[in-house]
Amino acid sequence: MLTIRRMTHDDIDAANELQSRVYSAIPPFGLEQFGGLLDRFPDGQIVAEIDGALVGIALSLVVLWDDYSLHHTWASVTNTGEFDTHDMSGRTLYGIEVCVDADTRGKGVGHALYEARRALCQAMNLKRVIAGGRLPGYVEHAAHMSPEEYAKRVIWGDFYDPVLRFQLNEGFDFCGILHGYLPTDEESIGNASLIVWLNPGYKADQPTKQAPANLYPVLYP
Ligand SMILES: CC(C)(COP(=O)(O)OP(=O)(O)OC[C@H]1O[C@@H](n2cnc3c(N)ncnc32)[C@H](O)[C@@H]1OP(=O)(O)O)[C@@H](O)C(=O)NCCC(=O)NCCS
């Protein structure tokens, strides 16, 4: 059984180990970083669990998007992992991390985590979800094309990228390439795709709401 639920402090070790397994070059969040994130924005930190084992995480902040916008990096939007850029007066849910254990991919866990993120965005009456998406397939092509050309070819179907294709299929729009977004991301050569999903139910004249207590857990048989 797949369960999507809020992350708790008891999940921090497992989430840190998951990131260590998933990324060869990108360092995992430290235990204090995870703790700070949970303290700042508990509703935004989501885990996927199968039969009691943590297999995926989706982590978010609320940000004042105009402060970052076109030329941001992972470091600027998170204040280098301090996460004190989280600001409930913003209207943008910003995805700072999503990953699923390699053994469990291709079975809908990522989709369930993205569903939860969209549900959170809608429940809080936020305008959109924005993220910098990795381009792990780019390293194979980097010697002979720009990341812009690579992304176009993924979008028009000549190449498959497991992250950008997944995000496009999840209803996100591709808004361009962010150069130097995450320098430790060797597969993407530091690049990322700027992606956005607009909340169709967003009401600009109404305030941001607290996520309801019953938003999670969501159980999938
Ligand atoms: C991106 C990522 C989170 C997706 O997670 P996932 O659990 O594999 O996602 P899903 O299983 O929902 O979808 C992946 C693919 O499997 C397909 N799929 C889902 N369930 C399926 C099923 N039952 N049978 C066949 N295919 C299925 C989906 O349609 C999707 O295909 P697509 O790539 O053509 O869109 C995962 O690849 C990952 O962790 N990557 C490494 C970390 C990373 O780079 N994260 C991104 C940070 S920006």
Structure description:
With 221 residues, the chain is of the alpha+beta class. The protein has a domain at 60-212: Aminopeptidase (3-Layer(aba) Sandwich). It has six helices and eight strands. The chain has an eight-stranded mixed beta sheet with strand order 6-7-5-4-3-2-1-8, sandwiched between helices. The N and C termini lie close together (5 Å). The structure holds coenzyme A. The site of coenzyme A has 19 residues, from strand 4, helix 4 and helix 6.
List the helices and strands and how they pair.
Blueprint (H helix, E strand, L loop, with lengths): L1 E5 L5 H11 L8 H10 L4 E6 L2 E11 L10 H5 L13 E9 L8 H15 L4 E6 L13 H9 L8 H6 L3 E6 L13 E7 L19 E3 L1
Parallel strand pairs: 4-5
Antiparallel strand pairs: 1-2, 1-8, 2-3, 3-4, 5-7, 6-7
This protein binds coenzyme A.
Q: In brief, what are we looking at here?
A:
With 221 residues, the chain is an alpha+beta fold.
Overall geometry: globular
Distance between the termini: 5 Å
Poorly predicted regions: none
User: In angstroms, what is the radius of gyration?
Assistant: 17 Å
Instruction: Provide the β-strand percentage band.
Output: 15-25%
Structural class: alpha+beta
Total of helices: 6
Helix and strand sequence: EHHEEHEHEHHEEE
Relevant CATH superfamily of the domain at 60-212: Gcn5-related N-acetyltransferase (GNAT)
